[in-house]
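Figure S4 source data
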Amino acid sequence: MRLSGIITQGARRVGQPEYVRAYKVAYSLDGREFTFYKDEKQDADKVFQGNVDYGTMQTNMFNPPITAQFIRIYPVMCRRACTLRFELIGCEMNVYFNTAGCSEPLGMKSHLISDQQITASSVFKTWGIDAFTWHPHYARLDKTGKTNAWTALHNGQSEWLQIDLRDQKKVTGIITQGARDFGHIQYVAAYKVAYSDNGTSWTLYRDGQTNSTKIFHGNSDNYSHKKNVFDVPFYARFVRILPVAWHNRITLRVELLGCDE
């Protein structure tokens, strides 16, 4: 779903008004890993203003909208008990993106995609030590550990991370994440996406309005998820992420979204 807002309302219990005065919102694609909606100006969890009585409806809009399958509302401040009635504002993703029912993780985080299916142009080793190799197959969303992402040997726009989906899939979106190398924050700030059916001939994803190669906004820190939905989904077996801009070193953790359709 593409969610653009929320309406909240309190209630009355035994003659006494009860309502949520302030709250946070978290969202997820899989129902397990949740991300709190952020205040872009402060880079902190957004605290939404709730109700001031039990009967009036309070509307808050999400700017930018949320793409999610699961939503959680976390009360921060309540009047008496935390009592809530609510409605979500939004639509099926296909209204905007033609991706309804096709935005499931394709297997990077879950390991449905095997290590052998993930390759890269080069690999970096911290201090040149084999034990601190940032392998391509470490590029799994939310991977933990000392070396928990893919890092390229060189910083340059010829570097790439490649995922072989084994069969042609409908790819509707991507989630990226940076990492930290012994205190050094590293991430990809912008990137291109290319796709292929044979791993040899590649097509760069294009901006539907300008027909130029689309440059996607990436991460701004080492831990947050940055999701981009493809306005026009594509069908492919192979997907490449091509870094264009980065902080410190080219470092990626990633999940692809789509379905078998």
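Figure S5 source data
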Amino acid sequence: MQILQFTSNSGPSLAGTTPNDDEGDVFFWIDVARSESDWQEQCQRWLKVQLHEHHLADTLNNTHPPYFDATNDYELLIVRTLCPDCPPEAPTTHAVAFIITDRVVLSVRPDNDPLLRGLQQRLLSGQRDAPTSVPMLLYLAIDRITDALLERRNVTSELLSGWQDRLLDPNDQFSDWRALMRLRSQLRRLEVASEAQIDALREWREQTRLVIDSHLSVRLNDIREHLRRLYNHALITQHDIDALVQVFFSSNAQRTNETLQFLAIISAIFLPLNLITALFGTNFTHLPMLSAWYGPLAMLAAMTAVVLGLLLWFRKKRWI
């Protein structure tokens, strides 16, 4: 657990482990990893409120969807952030919970999530302007989470482009169907999560007791537009995968039809030739040209004429 304090006349700094009731115009950010033990009691001393047991259970749920709820003492906002270890074909997300009061933002995140820890380091080192209010601090955290989700769009697009080239290459025996379908499934989840995240942020803006000035309101609108772009990307990419699969099977069906057409033409050409050969292969004693010197030449000429005639007929019918 790490606690940052923000004041109006100095930059952010690490706070002590015990809250000071005499603090003036100061607000705090308490960052907790979900696996830490016994953080609830200590955080409630900083929050100075009693957290509802259901809300505590929600903060510990790594699979919780985006959600907003409020009580008379605090607000609960849950968003989804990108899993840092997920492969490109499976952009999975996990939950980050924020408990918000007038002076404290408590974030409960997964252990391996680097986004909020990175934001804290940037604030402490002065690489990022310090927030001046609790809503601004919450905006910085959610903005970093949203940017990480948006960055995955390029990775997904490049991966899908490579699969598209392989699927349409007749010489490539594509076998990554499990990964392709996994990507589509995860994009569906990402679509649902981004839409729910937009709704949760909208509810927080409408119901929060905190003051959101016009400057911050514009920035929050940017987050909403970024999430909308993420939603559209997930939706369009799903349609692209469906279209790509249909094109692949259509291409395979066309190649199969061409092969069957070629075999049918060969069979149609050789069928009358086999008939002529079988006729002269019978054991009848008297057959025309059987003993004539020009018999083989005549049969060869007849077979050639039959082949040419069939080819011309197939061409006229546009079968070849």
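Helices lie at 39-47, 53-59, 115-125, 134-167, 177-207, 214-280, 295-316. Residues 260-316 form a domain with the Methane Monooxygenase Hydroxylase; Chain G, domain 1 fold (CATH 1.20.58).
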